[in-house]
Write a structure and sequence with these properties.
The complex is a heterotrimer of chains A (326), B (271) and C (297). Chain A is mainly alpha-helical and 326 residues long. Chain A has helices at 2-28, 33-38, 47-56, 64-76, 91-126, 131-145, 148-162, 182-218, 222-229, 234-271, 277-287, 290-318. In chain A, helix 5 crosses helix 11 (277-287). With 271 residues, chain B is of the alpha/beta class. Chain B has one domain (6-255): 3-Layer(aba) Sandwich (Rossmann fold), CATH 3.40.50. Chain B has helices at 48-55, 82-88, 110-122, 126-139, 156-168, 186-203, 214-220, 238-243, 248-255, 259-270, and strands at residues 6-16, 21-32, 37-41, 63-72, 75-76, 93-96, 174-178, 206-211, 223-228, 231-237. The longest helix of chain B is centred in the last third of the chain and has 18 residues, at 186-203. Chain B is globular and about 55 Å long. Chain C is mainly alpha-helical and 297 residues long. Chain C is 72% helix and 0% strand. The chains are: A mainly alpha (326), B alpha/beta (271), C mainly alpha (297). Chains in contact: A-B, A-C, B-C. At the A-C interface, helix 1, helix 6, helix 7, helix 8 and helix 10 of A face helix 5, helix 6, helix 11 and helix 13 of C.
């Protein structure tokens, strides 16, 4: 319990740090911060609307700390302002709609590639020096060192344009209405394959290398030798003695990997014109829609913190030494 | 003499290097009789642990057996195929490892670490395994209701007793103990060795006891072999090794003990 | 330790291939003005021409020579990569060693910030920073990368420092009254050289990838000649849909090649630093001896 409270305190601090960056950045830029923030709106913003936005972002008369508190207050009441490009839509709903797609894509890709990568890493370490190990290790070097942008573009070029096997954009056929029909779900899957394939290619290698190295570092441990000495089957020792223990450091490195997953996912969405956060963000950057750009940092930070929390909790569940005496 | 239980014949083991090999065990032969405690002593790196691992064929690259035989009741362990080897391990030769803190799998309950042995070798179900586990834990003075605890909930000495209980779960013919007490303090060390000795008298298994502590060894062993740089330089009964060491190296080993320890060992031995 | 690292690197096959790839790219980047007569920024041909004898890798939407942009762009990628990589490594190593060695309050403060930076997602943060800066030049990108990405390095360096802090040679240096900064610089740092090496190469890879990503997302300065801007322009010109694959695949393969070269080097350093990960010759000899019946398992 004390552990959880400490973690939550830390998460809160991290979130406020992200908000602080948002608050100070426009004020640190040369020039008028209000002008910078809302310049792209041009004449479309009525004075009343502009005033409301200014209030949300803490541009009030008064000392800096008062402005800061005003800004924090609007954030903690869930008001991230309004998008300028999609005015008058609130930032939360612009990002919220997109978030569903991103979380779906990212979540599935993370689960698939973590499972696959971990399994490949276990087998590669167990058959150290075999052809399988070499293929996995070399494949991982290739997969992890190529930027997600590049992998996305190459996948899109070959499977989308050259071979024409898969669609080159959108989350589903735009002519279909979203529903729980078989056609619509089929279309979703069909459109999701290439972005998924890309993300899994980018991520699997990293998980495989981490797991392989963690396994190799453990293989000399006495309890693994004892597992073999006990005459247990190879798969029992591999999975329940070696892999089960090597999973612990792997899971804790997952917390850091999630940042990479996020970045990769944003880029992949842009390339595949997938309607997630990445795409919204891309449009926002081109239009200098600052409320949206700032809002995504906060939402991404929250997403990252939730992911971290899940990792923390699963780590505790996986390691009996942390569970206390139960 | 009748057929020995374990017979090591001309065993030679190399550590394969990039260009040259390192001879870890050089033409070593010795026998262990049924019910006997045989000690193998020497400095670290003299090859004694390599032999211990080779008996269950647990050695891994770069270690490689170049020649020799390991006979258990006349059957060469080196000839066993994978299936036979798996059923041979633990049922005939069980092993206690050096680090008491680290030889139990930290993420499995103690119960599960008995169960996998009992199921693999004797096809027991959970209920039967639990009964057997309770019986074995009682044998080493650990309360059976703690079988659902994890290893980290036990002290070092208790963990080593649990390992010994797991060792004896299948009634093996010989238990190989590779520096079983180095990680433990002296009191616990003595307690564990006494316990093993009692159990041996009761259950009749042999022990191959490996340590660098010659003083400790003469107290518990029937016969002792002294190893130096991969070679077995002397082997004799414990009394002889203590009272009239033949090889220079054995004498040197004794000389390196403080005299206080020497007289204490002598006392212990006399009693 | 440093010597071990270097002799190890010259013997490791992965390191060798990696260094050849990187050296090749460096040489091409430096020799760029000699290798092509075309100015990378100006219009020198008709738009979207496929590769030909005149334009080895074709032309872009606005008629620039792709090959010229590729080899001039290599300069930018390398400069940003190594510049930002160096900055990230220096910051991370310094903070890690200070936190690990000094301990106490200093450690608490540094560790708190390190952990905080680690949970704020990197790319979204960079997007916010870069978007306020406007059109970020490679130099600006390198600097903001340097100041936002040191946390991972600081964390691993701190952990390593903690593990050697109580070794005898540190204790004896303390007894001799060596000042703390000297102990950190000359006693601790040399012993962390492989972790610093891994951090550096990893940071270079990260910086190159991230620079390209930021530029691809439209945050770069349009006047820059770099692989990221090549991707951005090609994507904006819908190069793939109009069939101008050379326009977009050229920077793709260049980034992939550089990334692979650096990764090979990184894995090699990891293997040298962590002997358990090494296999190499001895395992081959071991297997050969078993196959020939010269030994038994």
């Amino acid at each position: 319990m004390a552990f959880l409270i400490r973690r939550f305190g830390f998460y809160l601090a991290a979130f406020i740090a992200a908000a602080t960056i948002n608050f100070f950045l426009p004020r640190l830029m040369p020039g008028d911060p209000i002008q910078i923030m809302f310049s792209s709106a041009g004449a479309e913003l009525s004075p009343e609307n502009l005033d409301a936005l200014k209030l949300t972002f803490g541009f009030v008369d008064g000392p800096l700390w008062q402005q800061y508190l005003t800004y924090l207050q609007s954030i903690f009441t869930g008001d991230l302002g309004r998008s300028i490009k999609y005015f008058p839509l609130p930032v939360t709903s612009v990002l919220g709609n997109a978030l569903i797609w991103t979380v779906g894509l990212m979540g599935t890709a993370t689960i698939v590639s973590f499972t696959l990568g971990t399994f490949l890493g276990v087998l590669a370490a167990w058959r150290r020096g075999s052809v399988f190990d070499i293929v996995v290790s070399v494949g991982a070097i290739f997969a992890t060192s190529v930027p997600a942008v590049v992998t996305s573009l190459i996948v899109l070029f070959f499977f989308g344009f050259t071979l024409g096997w898969f669609p080159t954009g959108y989350a589903a056929d735009p002519s279909l209405d979203p529903s729980f029909s078989l056609t619509y779900i089929g279309s979703l899957l069909y459109h999701g394959i290439l972005p998924m394939l890309t993300l899994c290619t980018v991520l699997t290698g990293g998980f495989a290398v981490t797991m392989r190295n963690n396994m190799i570092n453990l293989l000399g441990e006495d309890y693994i030798v004892m597992g073999r000495a006990k005459g247990l089957s190879d798969s029992r020792v591999m999975l329940w003695y070696a892999a089960r223990n090597a999973l612990l450091p792997t899971v804790s490195s997952l917390a850091i990997a999630i940042g990479t997953v996020l970045g990769g996912s944003l880029v992949t969405e842009v390339v595949f014109n997938y309607p997630g956060l990445g795409n919204i963000l891309y449009q926002a950057i081109l239009a200098r829609d600052y409320p949206v750009i700032q809002g995504q940092l906060l939402i991404m930070t929250v997403a990252m913190l939730i992911a971290n929390f899940i990792v923390d909790v699963s780590y505790v569940l996986l390691d009996p030494r942390l569970r206390g005496t139960s | 003499m009748t057929q020995p239980l374990l017979s090591i014949k001309n065993l030679t083991i190399d550590y394969i290097g990039e260009n040259t090999d390192f001879r870890a065990v050089d033409n070593v032969s010795f026998d262990v009789a049924a019910g006997e405690i045989f000690g193998l002593a020497g400095e670290s790196g003299c090859g004694k642990s390599t032999i211990a691992f080779a008996i269950s064929r647990l050695h891994k690259p770069p270690a490689l057996i170049r020649s020799g035989q390991i006979l258990l009741e006349g059957r060469d362990v080196l000839d066993l195929d994978i299936q036979a080897l798996r059923s041979f391990r633990w049922r005939e030769v069980a092993m206690v490892f050096q680090s008491a803190m680290n030889s139990l799998n930290p993420v499995l309950r103690v119960e599960a670490q008995f169960y996998d042995v009992l199921r693999t070798h004797q096809g027991m179900n959970r209920k039967q395994a639990r009964e057997r586990t309770a019986e074995m834990l009682r044998l080493v003075d650990i309360q059976p209701d703690r079988m659902s605890d994890y290893p980290h909930q036990f002290s070092g000495g208790m963990r080593q007793r649990i390992v010994i209980a797991i060792c004896l779960a299948l009634n093996p013919k010989i238990v190989v103990m590779d520096e079983p007490t180095t990680a433990l303090d002296v009191v616990v060390q003595r307690e564990i060795l006494q316990r093993v000795n009692e159990l041996r008298k009761k259950l009749g298994f042999s022990v191959l006891f490996i340590t660098h502590d010659l003083g400790l060894m003469v107290q518990v062993c029937d016969r002792i072999g002294i190893m130096l740089e991969g070679k077995l330089v002397e082997q004799n009964t414990a009394q002889e090794i203590y009272a009239s060491p033949q090889h220079d190296y054995t004498k040197k080993l004794w000389a390196s003990f403080p005299s206080l320890h020497g007289s204490k060992t002598a006392e212990a031995f006399a009693s | 330790m440093i010597k071990v690292l270097f002799t190890g690197l010259t013997r490791n096959r992965k390191a060798l291939i990696g260094m050849i790839i990187i050296a090749f790219i460096v040489v091409v980047a430096l020799a760029a003005p000699l290798l092509t007569e075309y100015n990378p920024a100006s219009r020198v041909g008709r738009p979207h021409q496929p590769p030909s004898a005149d334009h080895w890798l074709g032309t872009t939407r606005i008629g620039q020579d792709v090959f010229s942009r590729l080899i001039h762009g290599a300069q930018t990628s390398l400069a940003v990569g190594f510049g930002a990589g160096l900055l990230i490594t220096v910051l991370g190593t310094a903070l890690g060693i200070i936190a690990g060695y000094r301990g106490g309050k200093t450690d608490e403060v540094i560790s708190f910030f390190t952990n905080m930076v680690l949970v704020v997602p990197n790319l979204p943060l960079l997007l916010v920073l870069a978007s306020f800066i406007g059109q970020a030049s490679p130099l600006v990108i390198a600097i903001i990368l340097g100041f936002t990405s040191w946390a991972w390095g600081a964390r691993v360096t701190r952990a390593e420092t903690l593990s050697i802090k109580h070794k005898d040679f540190i204790k004896s240096a303390e007894m001799m009254g060596e000042p703390r900064w000297r102990i950190m610089m000359f006693e601790i740092f040399p012993n962390l050289i492989s972790i610093v090496g891994i951090n550096f190469i990893g940071s270079v890879i990260f910086a190159i990838i991230t620079e390209a990503t930021l530029e691809f997302l439209g945050l770069g300065d349009p006047k820059t000649v770099s692989w990221g801007m090549m991707l951005y322009n090609a994507q904006k010109a819908s190069a793939l849909s109009v069939g101008a694959w050379w326009d977009i695949l050229t920077p793709c393969f260049a980034l992939a090649l550089l990334g692979i070269g650096l990764s090979l080097l990184n894995f090699a350093v990891d293997e040298i630093a962590n002997p358990r990960l090494r296999s190499g010759n001895r395992l081959n000899r071991w297997t050969a001896l078993i196959r020939s019946g010269d030994g038994r398992l």
